Automatic annotation (TrEMBL):
<dbReference type="InterPro" id="IPR012784">
    <property type="entry name" value="DksA_RNA_pol-bd"/>
</dbReference>
<keyword id="KW-0863">Zinc-finger</keyword>
<dbReference type="InterPro" id="IPR037187">
    <property type="entry name" value="DnaK_N"/>
</dbReference>
<dbReference type="GO" id="GO:0005737">
    <property type="term" value="C:cytoplasm"/>
</dbReference>
<keyword id="KW-0963">Cytoplasm</keyword>
<comment type="similarity">
    <text>Belongs to the DksA family.</text>
</comment>
<feature type="domain" description="DnaK suppressor protein DksA N-terminal">
    <location>
        <begin position="29"/>
        <end position="99"/>
    </location>
</feature>
<dbReference type="Pfam" id="PF21157">
    <property type="entry name" value="DksA_N"/>
</dbReference>
<dbReference type="GO" id="GO:0010468">
    <property type="term" value="P:regulation of gene expression"/>
</dbReference>
<keyword id="KW-0479">Metal-binding</keyword>
<dbReference type="GO" id="GO:0008270">
    <property type="term" value="F:zinc ion binding"/>
</dbReference>
<dbReference type="Pfam" id="PF01258">
    <property type="entry name" value="zf-dskA_traR"/>
</dbReference>
<keyword id="KW-0862">Zinc</keyword>
<comment type="function">
    <text>Transcription factor that acts by binding directly to the RNA polymerase (RNAP). Required for negative regulation of rRNA expression and positive regulation of several amino acid biosynthesis promoters.</text>
</comment>
<feature type="region of interest" description="Disordered">
    <location>
        <begin position="1"/>
        <end position="23"/>
    </location>
</feature>
<dbReference type="InterPro" id="IPR048489">
    <property type="entry name" value="DksA_N"/>
</dbReference>
<dbReference type="InterPro" id="IPR000962">
    <property type="entry name" value="Znf_DskA_TraR"/>
</dbReference>
Length: 145
């Protein structure tokens, strides 16, 4: 039985929140984070569809040059935001794959648990807070060179 098939047999209460009192990344926690990630992905896809429909409907030509410039700027900003969202969907898919392979919730650098609060706030996290801070410090040092 795959992790996905096994996880789908659990029904979480609507008010369930992962707790430090239970084993880390147990079946309930994996299901909680899977549901959270899938809902986030669905919301991004819904917003993207709305954007595409809106951009298609807005493609009318403006007689006024200033209106056209404003419209093009808004369109460029919206497309840039959607591109960031598209990249985020890739990270969500990677997190879902980690849930399936059992590595979700563990720091890629240290192998230690990432922490429930961090995962709840950023379910695509791959590093613990400490490892992320080290990574950002190294990044700052190289950027300053």
């Amino acid at each position: 039985m795959t992790a996905r098939a096994k996880s789908s047999s659990i029904v979480l209460p609507p008010d369930y929140r992962p707790s430090e009192d239970e084993p880390f990344m147990n079946e309930r926690q994996r299901m909680y984070f899977r549901n959270k990630l899938l809902a986030w992905k669905d919301e991004i896809i819904r917003q993207t569809r709305e954007t595409l429909v809106g951009l298609h409907e807005e493609s009318t030509q403006h007689a006024d040059l200033a209106d056209r410039a404003t419209s093009e700027t808004d369109r460029a900003l919206e497309l840039r935001a959607r591109d960031r969202q598209r990249k985020l969907v890739g990270k969500i898919d990677a997190a879902l794959a980690r849930i399936d392979d059992g590595s979700y919730g563990f720091c890629e650098e240290t192998g230690e648990p990432i922490g429930l609060k961090r995962l709840d706030a950023r379910p695509i996290a791959t590093l613990s807070v400490e490892a992320q801070e080290r990574h950002e410090r190294r990044e700052r040092v190289y950027r300053e060179d």
